[in-house]
Amino acid sequence: MKKISYTILIFFTAAIWGFVGIDQAGAENCWNRNVLGYEHVFWGNAMNSNVTVDPGDLVRFSVEGEYPGDNYPIAGEDCEGVPVQFEVYYDGSSTPVILVSGNLLPGSSIPGYITFQWYIDWSTPNLYGGNYRFKIVSLAGYYWNSVLSSNVLTVTGPPVPLVCSVTPNPASGNPPLNDVDVAVAVTSGFSQASKFLVDCDISDGVNYISGPVLTNSSHTFIDVCDYASTGIFTVRGRVEEQGSGARPPVECDGIVTVIATPTPTPTPTPTPTPTPIPTPTPTPTPTPTPTPTPTPIPTPTPTPVPTPIPTPAVPTVSIYCNNTTPCIIDSGDSATISWNSAGATVCVVSPGGWTGTSGSQSTGNLTADQNYTVDCSGPGGQVSGSVLVLVQDTGATSTGPFKFNNPLGTTTIDELLKRLVAQLYLFAIPIVVIMIVYAGAMFVIAKGDQQKVSTAKRILLYAVIGLAIILINIGFRCLIEDILNISPPSPGC
């Protein structure tokens, strides 16, 4: 029966702090405390710690949030239509048995609090006898790493028996009939994680082909059965629930008909008979013949064509590091691993053990290269992807100024020329004097040796020329400034 005349609440004491890489504050505007009940709930009322229901009773998930920003004077987040997901677990089990999804609906204000109630109704949970716990795993499309509720939802009554169906595709054809798909589905409503099996022909004994363990209620075996000869074959499917609280396995049958199309018999060609020449006879007066009333031909009723069960698409998945692949970070930094899938129901990222069909997580500080892999499974099969985080050693970097010392202490061409001329005075004058003295000495000791006399003359000539150059240094400096077009000219030029 529907217990909707009173309100019973379950507090989820989940501390949800594991959300990474999203606007967490925005999501928290739609979620503060979450409860389970039957109607509108109010946090100010007295509440029971647990809830007891019968199989099929209405259950309401409620969360405390802010007032709708577009309907009330208090500014806040408008949570209407925000998608939310809860996972249901057997008490004592770490494996979810079902995923409850919905979009938040507005409830009413909460007495004593400046907050508002948002909820979704789980109209046909179809749970059976046992204790269950819950946790939020997704809000507004973002992954939430919550813990299980501290209290329990107790469902009374006996387990609902498993019922399944088998649908071969195609179900008939000419021999050889190969690559027949077989869909095995649970038709009795709720089903926890189950293993699917199929036997293409039970006439030669039961020989099951094992399929995957899935949390959804159906699985299609692709190109699993071949029939070489004609006949009517019984295909058998089997569903085996896994984990604690598993119900007895169930089997179900389907039929595949293989019929040979008969070869048409050729029609013999008739032998022509000679046509006799008719003897003319008198034409009698024709007697009017009544026109017969035509008999209506009955319209056959068309035979309905069975609608084929669509084959689930193979799931796809992508994984990135800092929104690219691969990515490079400095040693000791962290990276953000994000992944997204389509057509998948379960995804696990390792290392890290992160779950969810999409989401993002921080790697923490890394000092060595690390490869991250995501494995996903769904009705259409399994798929995986990976991304590499490369860690580089930044090393030491110089941050000081870079400069050279100027040993001459000059900043202009003019100052440089003055400094050079001054140095020439210091060195050239003594050298000239030494050369003149040396040339005179050679004249004295030559004693008529023409070679020594010539050498002494050259030394004296070079000394005189050098002295002349030194004496006219100012004119030489002015000439250089004029060639280099230095403006204004130095004093004395």
UniProtKB/TrEMBL annotation:
This is Ig-like domain-containing protein. The keyword Membrane applies. It comes from Candidatus Yanofskybacteria bacterium GW2011_GWA2_44_9. The chain crosses the membrane at residues 424-446, 458-476. PANTHER family: MIGRATION AND INVASION ENHANCER 1, SELENOPROTEIN W. Residues 260-297 are annotated as: Disordered. Keywords: Membrane, Transmembrane, Transmembrane helix. The keyword Manganese does not apply. Residues 263-297 have a biased composition (Pro residues).
